């Protein structure tokens, strides 16, 4: 049975047809598909829905979908025009595999979509699952044990929304929780913030207490970040750990990008899996996988590199050893190859690469290329066979999902102020060409890793060769590699 899946949200709209994962922002060049001045503007959502839903809603295809409650108003309007009923409004699953479907459509809850993607992509025969983010539909946070039974933790761990709320309150933008996490390493515990956060959690409506504005004006952003991270870990230990039924854990939802939390779980679970598109940008994958498993009895695991592939022919053929040599001599390289990654982490196909040994490289890239805040760190991509030589952890991290202590002073360019790094472990099987580049750098320098950050400059990660060349020309990159070819600046 053919399935077409879509996640219809206020942000991070995406579709999946079994082959191609369409993350809409990469094509329309709108970050999260949002108008930041008004994140609740439904214009882009309606455009997306009309483009992707309507043409595929027919008797030859089961349309699988999930929605978020931020999009209730426009989703309801559009679905009522297209579907025979809106039973999904009252749908409250108690098991991972619960669903609503007819011959033509298939619906699962927002957090079921996260959970299905995390579990079915893991390869585990059984697992506990944690789906946790800011807001969904019926839930904010659910724990699913190895039998599929759902425990609603929304009232206990309603923490994802608070990260976004406090991000705005301390001067960042909507969906900027990741920036707050970048400040954790600079802060310290603050009792006032700690009490304020707990008052928020204890409020049935999850509202900040009176006087919160005054507190936030007299404390530092760094202390807000540190204390919020402390509370998040407290909640995980208090409410999730007692529910454990398996040695395996799968995590998805926006909070799954909290690398400190994910690393904490490795102390309690033998195996921890966080998929590459763990946030709302991967929901169509989870929705598709859920439907394919139930309707077709098929465990379909999407490729990490599931975007489109583009043909590009340049004037100069690339030599990977020479690229590694250039990086070792201080050059910063835009690296574009194959299909784009699913998710918002650059995993070696849409990456900016540099020398992790350079203590000044973080400031150079932040100020001249990424044009972002100077406190934000960069990740190392390390050959998997060497990661324990440099990082204090007990599990590989192929999707850059965990933050762990660094135990070497040889890589200051990727070591955060608190002595940690969010690593990607790379095998030749995972990405042969990227592995070979890192290995060439290893032969030259004795360091088996590269600094890796997403290929963008204040916009969505580049999708096409045209995007890559445009970003290359407007920022401080030294060299651009597109597939088998090198692109240089006009004055080189």
What does this structure look like?
This protein has 492 residues and is of the alpha/beta class. It has three domains: 1-121 and 277-302, no CATH class; 122-274, ATPase, nucleotide binding domain (Nucleotidyltransferase, domain 5), CATH 3.30.420.40; 316-488, Carbamoyltransferase, C-terminal domain (DHBP synthase, Alpha-Beta Complex), CATH 3.90.870.20. It contains 16 helices and 20 strands. It has helices at residues 24-28, 43-52, 72-82, 110-120, 160-169, 177-182, 191-202, 212-218, 221-240, 259-265, 283-296, 320-328, 361-370, 387-390, 432-445, 465-474; strands at residues 3-8, 14-16, 21-23, 62-67, 100-101, 105-107, 128-132, 141-144, 150-152, 248-252, 271-273, 316-317, 333-336, 350-354, 379-383, 402-405, 420-426, 449-454, 479-482, 485-488. A nine-stranded mixed sheet has the order 12-20-19-13-14-18-15-17-16, with helices on both faces. A six-stranded mixed sheet has the order 3-2-1-4-6-5, with helices on both faces. A hairpin with a 5-residue loop joins β1 and β2 (14-16). The chain starts with a strand and ends with a strand. The mean pLDDT is 90.
């Amino acid at each position: 049975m053919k399935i077409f899946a879509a996640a219809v949200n206020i942000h991070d709209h995406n579709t999946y047809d079994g082959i191609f994962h369409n993350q809409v922002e990469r094509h329309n060049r709108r970050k999260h598909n949002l108008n930041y001045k008004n994140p609740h503007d439904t214009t882009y959502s309606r455009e997306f829905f009309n483009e992707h839903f309507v043409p595929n809603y027919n008797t030859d295809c089961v349309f699988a979908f999930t929605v978020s409650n931020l999009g209730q108003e426009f989703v309801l309007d559009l679905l009522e025009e297209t579907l025979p009923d809106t039973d999904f409004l009252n749908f409250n699953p108690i098991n991972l595999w619960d669903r609503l479907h007819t011959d033509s459509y298939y619906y699962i809850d927002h957090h079921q979509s996260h959970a299905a993607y995390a579990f079915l992509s893991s390869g585990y025969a059984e697992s506990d699952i944690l789906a946790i983010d800011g807001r969904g539909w019926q839930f904010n946070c659910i724990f699913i044990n190895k039998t599929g039974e759902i425990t609603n933790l929304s009232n206990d761990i309603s923490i994802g929304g608070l990260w976004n709320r406090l991000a705005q309150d301390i001067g960042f933008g909507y969906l900027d929780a990741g920036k707050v996490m970048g400040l954790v390493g600079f802060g310290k515990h603050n009792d006032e913030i700690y009490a304020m956060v707990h008052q928020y959690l204890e409020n049935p409506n999850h509202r900040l207490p009176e006087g919160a504005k005054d507190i936030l004006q007299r404390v530092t952003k760094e202390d807000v970040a540190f204390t919020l991270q402390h509370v998040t870990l407290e909640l995980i230990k208090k409410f999730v750990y007692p529910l454990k039924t398996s040695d395996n854990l799968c995590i998805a939802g926006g909070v799954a990008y909290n690398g400190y939390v994910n690393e904490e779980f490795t102390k309690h679970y033998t195996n921890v899996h966080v998929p590459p598109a763990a946030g709302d940008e991967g929901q169509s994958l989870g929705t598709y996988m859920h439907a394919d498993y139930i309707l077709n009895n098929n465990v379909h695991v999407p490729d990490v590199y599931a975007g489109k592939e583009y043909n590009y022919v340049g004037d100069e053929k690339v030599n990977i050893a020479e690229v590694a040599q250039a990086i070792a001599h201080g050059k910063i390289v835009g690296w574009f190859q194959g299909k784009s990654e699913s998710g918002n982490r650059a995993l070696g196909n849409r990456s900016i690469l540099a020398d992790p040994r350079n203590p000044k490289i973080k400031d150079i890239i932040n100020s001249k290329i990424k044009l972002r805040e100077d406190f934000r760190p960069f990740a190392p991509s390390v050959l998997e066979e060497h990661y324990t030589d440099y990082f204090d952890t007990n599990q590989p991290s192929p999707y850059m999902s965990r933050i762990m202590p660094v135990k070497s002073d040889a890589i200051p360019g990727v070591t955060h102020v608190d002595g940690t790094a969010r690593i990607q472990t790379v095998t030749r099987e995972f990405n042969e060409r990227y592995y070979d580049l890192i290995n060439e750098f290893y032969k030259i320098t004795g360091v088996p890793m590269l600094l890796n950050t997403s290929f963008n400059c204040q916009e969505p990660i580049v999708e096409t060769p045209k995007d890559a060349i445009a970003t290359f020309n407007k920022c401080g990159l030294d060299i651009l590699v597109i597939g088998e070819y090198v692109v240089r600046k006009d004055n080189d």
